[in-house]
Amino acid sequence: MKSKLTWILTPLLALMMSFSFAQEKTIAGTVTDQSGLPLPGVSVLVVGTTKGSQTDFDGNYTITATVGQKLRFSYIGQKTVEKLIGASGSISVQLEEDSQSLEEVVVVGYGSRSRELSTSAISTVSTEKIEAFVPSTSIDNILQGQAAGVQVTASNGRPGNTAFVQIRGVGSINAQTTPLYVIDGVPIPIDTERDFNPISNLNPSDIETFSILKDAATVSKYGSRGANGVILITTKKGKSGDAQIKFSSSYGFGEMIPDNYDIMNASQKLELERQYAALGVGAASSLPGATSTPAELARLVSLDTDWREALLRKSVIQSNNFSISGGDEKLTYYMSLGYDKNSGIIDNIDGFERISSRLNTNYQAKDWLNIGMNVSVSRSTTDLPRDRNNVQNPFRAMYSYNPYEPLFLTNNDGSIVTDDQGDQVYNPTSQGFPIALALQTEPEDTRNLLLIGNISAGMTFSDKFSNNFSVGLINNRYNRTSRSISGGVLNSIVGSAAFPGTQTDESIVDFEYNVNNIFTYSDTFNGLHNLSTSFLLEYNENISTDLFASGRGFPSPSIPYLDVAAEPTAVGSTESRRILFSQGLFVDYDYDGKYIVSGSVRRDGSSRFGPDNKFGYFYSGSAAWNISNESFMENSIFNTLKLRASYGTSGNQNIGDFNYLNLLDFANTYNGQTTALPVGVGNPQIQWESQAIFDVGVEFGLFNNRLNGVVDYFKKNSDELLLDRPISNTVGDENNSIFSNIGEIENSGIEVSLSGDVIRTENFKWTLGGNITFIDNKVIALVDGEDIITGTFGDNILRVGEEINSYYAVEYAGVNPANGEPLYYDLDGNITNEYSTSFQQIQEGKSPIANIEGGFYSAFSYKGFGLRTDFVFKGGNYIYNNQLQSGVAIGSINANQRVDAFNYWKQPGDTNVLPSPLFQGEADQTSTRFLEKGDYLRLRTLTLDYNMPRKAFENIGLNSVRFSLSGQNIFTITNFSGDPEVGIGSAESGEPGDVGFVPGSFNLFSYPNTRSFTFGIEVGF
To answer: Which of 181, 302, 313, 369 has the highest local Cβ count within 10 Å?
Structure first.
């Protein structure tokens, strides 16, 4: 009986199993938009399960499911569609645009709001644009040319360095002008005085979008921290469905952007020395070009050395990123790991290296409770070359070392000199400093360990009341080690033979936490009146500690620890704290989505100001009219047409601590006892630098949104600027001044952004876009209306009614064609052959600040192939070209020169020439002769990529495969003699935080900008 039952049940069980398996099958199809174009990245989810997939570049997908289940197709900006699975194994859908969903991605201050209902000027840089610039070691460089009103200039080419970012012009004279960065709700502290900028430690591959807040409607919500604009950074989040795994890797090289001028080779330099000596230039009479025999000259020519090739190399650039994301309807996650390396272009220097990780989660714990957590940890190291203007700077050396002086010392027969150990001996050259050896014996490096965390709890009490509570923290540990090892170049010059080797270690720990709570009430009345009100409480505290120590006398260069130093030489520590406590009220109202008004009031209390001025009040009001929602606009060419205006205030508290108190310095000793010296007279009346911003703009979209644009006019007045007011020298202040609110500046301009699909078919798409900003600035008020001379070398001036930081220089009048004398203008406008610094005068209309700036792009896509070009441009600014001055200086004939130096005056009647070498004393002086326009157009990025069709790899478990080839800073069109993108002209000579520092005002052998080429692959599972 049992045997019979087995024979009966076995076929029945097999039939049931085969029936069950028959229900689960593979579904495939294509997802397109309402124009019939394929949509990549559409989420395809089996409803009620965690099983999901995504469409590839061609809009194709595959997924396994059971008959009777439903597939949910969702994509940002498109209406979600669900399809029932039947007998067919093919389901293709066409999604329709969902304007409401599209607007939800706009991030504003302390939350999000649909763009349709926004009254603010916000520029958004999307994932697509960000990926076009990855890999990039700094996220702020990605913003260059991407948003109207945002001025971005690379500090220099040093790997890991951040850029100078300004929004709508210069907002202050003495206070920090860097915008406020907010990452997933956490404000990021940036201190230019201490060179503290955590932005360089963030992985650009983790960024979803940038939202740049520019006008009062949003920046006023950030009160005392919003004066310089706000950049909101949203990192990537997980989506419901199967785990999506992505791995990307790129590898390439970089090199110094080629000079657009020539420097002399050995033969040319020797000839210039001969000519100068023949003219009677004393400094040239003892040089090889004047004293060598023909045989010796031939030997020197054979040693011809291009010091750029001797000291530089091609940098190695690599980037590897791994991410996994997914989740279900309750819990989503995004995790990533990243590794970036840029060796830099200096030989024997390690460059920049970063390891980063991130975990973003979101958990719907209850119907009324949502928990979010974002944590990132990164560690970076930077090996620093000295790039200040002295003999330790390799970038100065490669232009000044004579080309007939090779890298290593040579014997008369051409063989290389070796030391007792058989090592080649570096040539100290006529400069007396073998820079190639110094790069090895004078190491300096920094290490950063950065933790950024945020946890939030969103509570929905009802459909009208909600609350969001969040705590964010930042902990950055910065370490710097600077050494001169025993027997090293610098140690042998300035060190002590009794105590060989020196070392300085510095450690800075910055800890900041931010707690905020936002309670929101929202309601709709009569189906037309929509009201939302939020109340903010926020507390922010920053604690910074600094510890440094130095020692000398090390038994071995391989033991770099102060514990083994024979003698300690210095030690010190500091601690600073600052607190900001804020309350805010934000109100938004709209009538049927047509007429919108918003308002905000914020009160900040800062520990940086005295008891009488501790609190500041900031407000804004804005309105918008959605004209396209009016009935009379039906069937018009406009999909979007909105007029908006805003006015409000914000503040700037980015100044030093305790300026309201009398300060003492305890740095010196007397008879072995600590002494106190007065170094600052406090002003208890100082208060916030205030800013008033007016903005009016129009947004439009035409022809089924194939053409979109934004036009804005803005005017930004920065008042109560903190400047030094002169005081009696009997008071005791070392600068004979007191910090006071006594200045005002103004920025105004027009921003235009346009983008459009020129061609949009099923297989081919061509998009053009760009932005341009026209901006003017001027000084409105100063201390008693008196000029302020500023700039690293005193070459800039602040004068009421003139452009900010206008150049202040002696005006050059050219060369006297009769005798080759350099000529100058005196203060009365008379031409003279005498030079005097008393002839310095303002150069009206000439400043380091551009009055036109922007970028434009072209993007093609055809059957998986893509080609994108991004250009940036700048105009109207001037740069003092110190490198040009050095390269043709008659008094520097002992160093190498530019080929242009041959073009000097030789006979009566010569014009458009350099002064005669006989007038070196007058010719080499600082004047407008070396002040050049900084206009340029640069091909910032060129990217060619290919997304393989899914059918080529779907049988091996892959979802997507993308190859890319990209180049950055490929070519530049400019009349500037050098690289016109100047941020820091000379590190350590003039840097952020230094008195009088003006970004981009001069160049002087800072780390050069680079161009790079990388090949990458991205694989999705």
So the answer is: 181
